[in-house]
Design a protein that fits this description.
The complex is a heterodimer of chains A (473) and B (319).
Chain A lengths: L33 H20 L2 H67 L6 H22 L6 H29 L4 H38 L5 H25 L5 H62 L4 H15 L6 H9 L6 H26 L3 H9 L7 H33 L3 H25 L3
Chain B lengths: L1 H19 L24 E2 L30 H8 L2 E5 L2 E2 L3 E3 L6 E2 L1 H14 L5 E5 L5 H6 L5 E2 L7 H4 L2 E3 L4 E3 L1 E6 L14 E5 L3 H8 L5 E5 L2 H9 L5 E5 H10 L3 E4 L6 E3 L2 E3 L3 H15 L2 H9 L1 H4 L11
């Protein structure tokens, strides 16, 4: 066989995209502009490739080049995609989930502040220290969590808008509450009016913004969890294609040369096989763990957070019904509606019922069950409270609503419910952290491993094909 | 290399040209906040179309009530109330001096509250056998019509329009509308408030009187009177205009405001009773007869004497 291509070696055959000899008779370069030369480049390359493909060594060089490019491309894309995956999981743990939790905390602490301020209004004389402390803690937590939530709202315009509303209105709210306090201390009913204005601001503007922000961040968390569990199609396609091409090449070589094994290509095939098995196993384990961190962790937490906020708002309604002193039918209706959402009409459904169904076998199960018990007890205490108020015993009803020191009061039942929910939410977050951290461990060394295996495959291909090309020397 | 060099020179020239022209723009605004939306009391609104029919309506004699009768016959409204065990009274919990919740004790206090307790004392012998229901100005008539309360004692002006829906006792207090403004304000009365925002409670006679004033102010309505004080303190309204009694309670809570102008209406306070309970009207009138004998003065001296000067109970007028 003759060839216009002089087999060059040792070393890698020149990529066919390079100007292939023989170069057409040189035209004086200076006479042509660089642009025209650039435009002719693809045409020249195609002509060169077609010419060399007509000969066996040329074809072999082409195959080798293709395989090496494919191997290196697969290595780069696979490594980047695995590294991305690992980064996404790290981001979930260190960034996205804490951020969603911050948004939850903003929403929760502000709801709690509203409920606490209303309770403080019902108590007479100077404000009870425990309520004052609780309110102060709520505001401090809301501020801290808001700063955290704000640190990453820039990318999402809608989230940035909510953060803006929250950070503008929160100081206004606390100002109104303090004005209410100052008036209250002097015995002026204007204090109650300021408190109503504060509560209106909270309910009409601040809480809706907090809820919106919470929903945005929870959605982003779920999206990122989806990102971390998807199949990396491009890498899968490339690596399977590479494997197929390697096997095809070996069959082709066997036909042409009657030699069964080519050590270089076998090494490359094994390396690609290991890469496929390793990454499939690691990614499967990781996906399963991230998914369970989602379903047992963040989704469970989300359910419980929504339950806790429904409970807090119902609590605010309970006290506001008494603050309104007879004019609070709308609050009472909202209370009934919120409790229905919390535990269902029969005490076994609602958000808590759903959480109980999903928490079977999880560490949060105990907390969720006691939360249901306390919610039912609270509803009973509330019914008693309404009866007291309805029969003219306003003071008894107020006592029932705000005295947390006695076991049977609505205040005590609510406090127990809130504590159980807090514990259950914390447990859900822990489940997320455990599962997701383990998921991240499953990917340890996979990215560099993938790169090394791809390089081994490329080297194997080079050596294997070079051995065959030598036979044409 | 000459063409390349030439190209390079041309490119750098172009780059210089691009960099040189065009405005660099303004620095980024770190806080793009133009105006601030102030917090408002719930349901605060500008009322553009308030109907007339305030204290100026003279199509009837609002003072004439049914003659008194203090007996409780079996089967009467009072008898039913006695069986229930408490008197249900619609009151205010936000109007200092007349009906307000004392934040130190949690109890409702004020001139209207004292009057309501006298009615309970007459039925039960116990001034504390009362269930107070806090209602807004707008809820007074519906609360009576729905039977939510037995009587309403809540700075409730008797007007011909209201007499069509409910009944009133005899007059137990005569107030008059004035104007409350900031101490540094140059406003001398309602006539200076044309086009300015003036606050009053929803469905109150005061709101109608503001809307009827000439030149016409911008009436701003709220649920409770103390919401008006909040809006005045926050600079969201220019003035509050209502009965001098209510204004006196506001001035008492804030030394930086003043009451200006003359009374430009007469507000006749009566106790509201559901229209069908004529026996209750007569009974309440009998209670008021007794109250005028001493309890009235005692309560007035406690709450209002210092702020409004000496006064006595208005004489009753019967049909």
């Amino acid at each position: 066989m003759t060839s216009t291509v002089t087999p060059r070696g040792p070393g890698v055959p020149a990529p066919p995209a390079q100007p292939v000899p023989p170069v057409p008779p040189e035209e004086p370069r200076g006479a042509r502009s660089g642009l025209a030369w650039l435009l002719e480049l693809p045409g020249n390359a195609v002509r060169g490739i077609t010419r060399s493909a007509a000969t066996t060594p040329g074809r072999l060089s082409l195959i080798a080049t293709g395989l090496i490019v494919l191997a290196l491309l697969t290595g780069v894309i696979g490594t980047v995609s695995v590294q991305n995956r690992a980064n996404t999981i790290d981001d979930l743990i260190h960034h996205r989930e804490p951020l969603a939790a911050s948004a939850q905390e903003v929403y929760r602490s502000l709801s709690d502040a509203d409920a606490t301020a209303a309770s403080a209004f019902l108590s007479t004389g100077s404000e009870p220290p425990e309520l004052r402390e609780r309110y102060a803690l709520d505001i401090a937590k809301a501020g801290a969590a808001l700063a955290r939530a704000a640190s990453d709202s820039g990318g999402v315009a809608e989230a940035a808008r909510q953060v803006e509303i929250l950070s503008q209105q929160l100081p206004v709210y606390t100002g109104l509450v303090e004005t209410a306090r100052a008036n209250n201390r002097q015995g002026f009913p204007a204090g109650a009016a300021y408190l109503r204005e504060a509560s209106e601001l909270m309910r009409a503007k601040i809480l809706p913004a907090a809820q919106e922000l919470y929903e945005i961040d929870t959605d982003r968390l779920a999206e990122e969890q989806d990102d971390a569990t998807g199949v990396p199609w491009l890498t899968a396609l490339l690596v399977l294609g590479l494997l197929g091409a390697l096997i095809g090449t070996q069959i082709h070589l066997k036909r042409k040369t009657n030699r069964v094994f080519n050590v270089g290509l076998v090494v490359a095939t094994v390396a690609v096989g290991i890469a496929i098995l390793w990454s499939a196993a690691a990614l499967t384990v990781q996906s399963v763990l991230v998914s369970s961190g989602g379903s047992d962790g963040t989704e469970q937490s989300d359910l419980l957070v929504r339950a806790r906020i429904a409970a807090l708002q119902a609590r605010a309604d309970e006290t506001l019904t008494l603050v309104a002193r007879g004019g609070g039918e709308s609050y009472q209706e909202e209370y009934t509606q919120l409790m229905g959402r919390l535990v269902g009409e029969d005490g076994n459904g609602g958000l808590l019922g759903e959480a109980a169904d999903r928490s079977e076998g999880l560490p949060s199960a105990g907390h969720v069950d006691s939360a249901i018990t306390h919610a039912t007890a609270w509803r009973e205490a509330h019914a008693e409270l309404r009866e007291l108020d309805g029969s003219g015993n306003y003071d008894g009803a107020v006592q029932m609503a705000i005295d947390g020191s006695q076991d049977r009061t609505a205040a005590a039942a609510f406090n127990r419910l809130d504590q159980e929910l807090a514990a259950a939410i914390e447990s859900g977050r822990q489940s997320f952290l455990d599962d997701t951290t383990n998921a991240s461990r499953a990917l340890v060394l996979l990215a560099p491993g993938f790169a090394v295996l791809a390089v081994i495959a490329a080297l194997g291909i080079t050596l294997g094909i070079r051995e065959r090309l030598r036979e044409y020397r | 290399m000459t063409p390349t060099k030439r190209l390079g020179v041309a490119l750098s020239a172009l780059a210089l040209l691009i960099a040189g022209c065009g405005s660099p723009g303004a620095p980024v605004d770190p806080a793009p906040v133009g105006s601030v939306e102030r917090p408002q009391p719930a349901n605060a609104a500008v009322e553009n179309d308030v109907e007339g029919g305030g204290a100026g309506d003279t199509s009837c004699d609002p003072t004439a009530s049914l003659p008194p009768n203090g007996a409780i016959e079996s089967g009467s409204t009072m008898d039913e109330i006695r069986d229930r065990g408490y008197l249900s009274v619609g009151v205010d919990q936000n109007t200092f001096l007349f009906g307000f919740r004392n934040p130190t004790t949690g109890a409702l206090e004020g001139f209207d509250i004292d009057i309501a307790r006298e009615v309970a004392r007459e039925i039960f012998g116990d001034p504390n056998a009362v269930q107070f229901r806090a209602i807004t100005s707008a809820q007074r008539i519906p609360a009576l019509q729905n039977g939510d309360v037995d009587i309403v004692v809540r700075t409730f002006s008797i007007t011909c329009e209201r007499l069509e829906d409910i009944s009133f006792s005899t007059v137990y207090y005569i107030a008059g509308q004035k104007v409350l403004v900031d101490k540094h304000s140059t406003v001398k009365g309602i006539q200076d408030l044309g086009g300015k925002r003036v606050c009053a409670a929803k469905e109150s006679t005061s709101l109608k009187n503001i809307a009827a004033a000439d030149p016409k102010p911008v009436p701003v309505s709220v649920d409770d009177w103390s919401d008006c004080l909040v809006m005045l303190q926050q600079g969201q309204v220019e003035a509050v205009s209502t009965d001098d009694t209510i204004l006196a309670g506001m001035a008492e809570q804030d030394p930086t405001v003043k009451i200006v102008g003359e009374r430009f209406t007469d507000e006749l306070y009566g106790i509201g009773v559901p229209k069908e309970n004529e026996d209750m009207v007569r009974f309440v009138n009998a209670v008021l007869e007794r109250v005028r004998g001493g309890a009235w003065q005692q309560s007035y001296n406690r709450w209002l004497l210092e702020r409004l000067g000496p006064a006595g109970p208005p004489a009753p007028n019967y049909q």
